[in-house]
Amino acid sequence: METNTLDISLKDRMISLFEDKKDQIFKNDIKPVSALRNEAFEAFTKMGFPHTKMEKWRSTSLEETLAKDYNFRIEGAPRQTNVEKIFECEIPDFDTYMVAQLNGWYVYRKAPLRTLPNGTIVGSLAQAMQEYPELISKHYGKYADYNENGLTALNTAFAQDGIFIYVPDGVEVEKPLQMVNIIDSDENLFIQSRNLVIMGKNSKLTLLQCDDSVHHRYTFLNALTEVYVDENSTLDHYKLQNKDDSSTLINNVYLHQEANSNVTTNAITLNGGLIRNDTHVTLNGRNCTANVYGLYLVDREQHVDNHVFIDHATPDSYSNEQFKGILDDSSSAVFNGHILVRKDSQHTNAYQNNKNILLTDKATVDTQPFLEIYADDVKCSHGATVGQLDQQAMFYIRSRGISKENARMLLMYAFTAEVVNKISIENLRERIDDMVKKRLRGELSICDQCVLHCNHPEKELKFNIDMTKI
Amino acid sequence: MLSIKNLSVSIEGKQILKKLNLEVEKGEVHAIMGPNGTGKSTLASIIAGRDFFDIDEGEVFYKGQNLLEMDPEERAREGIFLGFQYPVEIPGVSMNNFLRTALNEQRKYHGLDPMSASDFIARMEEKKKMLDMQSNLTKRSVNEGFSGGEKKKNEIFQMAVLEPQLAILDETDSGLDIDALKIVANGVNKLRKPDNSTIVITHYQRLLDYIIPDVVHVLYDGRIVKTGGKELALELEEKGYEWLKEHAY
Ligand SMILES: Nc1ncnc2c1ncn2[C@@H]1O[C@H](COP(=O)(O)OP(=O)(O)O)[C@@H](O)[C@H]1O
Ligand SMILES: [Mg+2]
Questions:
Q1: ipTM confidence
Q2: B104 within a domain of the structure (yes/no)
Q3: Using the 8-state DSSP alphabet, how is residue A309 labeled?
């Protein structure tokens, strides 16, 4: 454990930490990863943390969270006591293969890296560096550009472990893979976590990324996930975020798609102190589809920021961004959808929409499209709305005898349904649906374990609106 | 049933209703006619509980209760129904959920158990048939993408399902062709019971060929300037609203 000196900036502490602990940080590396670390460290030294004078950070200030007194766990052996409890965390009626990280470190029962019967490899990234150096060399750090973003640079310099997934050519993974990232600490903690997902040609994967935090300590998770999706492959990706108010989550996801691939990624934020989701999509082959969806339900002082960057690097592809949010109290949200259509990327279809409901006049939204179009044969649309609950609709509903409370619920629920209904796994959709209802009623607490409330099923929801179709 | 005394209402300082008086007894059908912008919809909204008006004076009693102190939902549960002149679209809320929630909240208020799914479906089917409604309408979101006629029929359908004691139909006839008009009138007539009252707000006399009113009122410039039997509607049709001006003050 490091000693903390608050009058030294976090950036400076990071720099000396890197220099002091080099042996430890580089311990598991293969050569190309070490080389990246050094370069990324240089980049971070130059850039530092993002700040509000930068266009893409103008409405998300890290100043307060960076001023907290964090500890680092460079050696970070997982706290074995929690491992069994974590693995109890299975979603009822929802058969998944679960892998977990505790405070950024991979936790396991039997082996740090396993090969499933269908050839899929799942486990610790640190271990994968040793066992599959050629796969790592080919993909690691190839999609996440550390020159672009101080946090990506920081992660590339420091991250030692996380989850590694490899799906061979032609393999369709039947069970969804559930990646649980738990922070459980009785001290303030700054964590770097790094995941690498490699999908071969003609493969299929459903990935569920759950982010939770347990103790109400200040935590800063700087997570980065690189995903390579080879030709003709399909990825269904869900991010479920249910974090306590004292947590900061940086979620950088880099999706690299080859021809004819199809990716859907859906970020559902139910709680979070400060959450920044950066989703970068590169469409690197023809006929790609990228659906980037999100739903955020925030209150109190919570802040959620969704930045999406879609690079139409090749012709004939389709992208669709749909984000919706409901904001209560003094919460705030940011949406920025950056679409780049390069000069030769003809026949591009790119759509974008962000809708927000503000329940109070203290809640704020900064929503912005950012279209950069250099090709001429392009269909592109964007739209954004920020409004209150429709008062005419409220009166209409109440005039039929429905209470004000339920009228609000109906309208809010209807608003969220568009995004929730896009979840293609039925069990998961129902589960999320239920959580959204609870969240809207203010009945959702932050679960002790995973976001799906498995260990501690909450009391049956008394919800007198039957939302299922009859 | 409904007693309005000296009701004056304004919005943003503009007076809309001026010392209006209206008495509706049990079992009666009243028609309120009058030119555009004279306050007919305002009156209907006040009875249903819309709260963005300023009530400057007067009182509204319904079944002996001070209506102006009740929330819109409470009024509905006590049997008031407003058929909106401009029904509101509510994307994402299916008609089924909407009506089932409404019905069950009303039942709960009266100490009744929620209606079973099968009873509910049966009631919906019966009323759809009665109103010659397309069967899939109830699976769709409330009023979303409905044609003008469908929206109006949908108001009557909701009325039929909720079985109110005092129904106020605000220009439910406008925009309907004659066939739809007959269906709507038929719906209203079937729901006519000795204990129920209806206020039909209309611009045209033709609806009153099908729904025979007991009393006809003419609303002009925020007050009721004339009250009579069903023949008043005919007279009005004949002489036009211009004729009223002479009687207005
Ligand atoms: N929401 C509102 N804001 C401002 N003025 C309104 C509003 N609603 C109605 N009014 C005004 O009140 C008057 C009466 O309107 P309304 O009750 O709709 O008349 P009617 O239904 O008889 O056509 C009109 O002059 C109209 O412009
Ligand atoms: Mg009107």
A1: 0.96
A2: no
A3: E
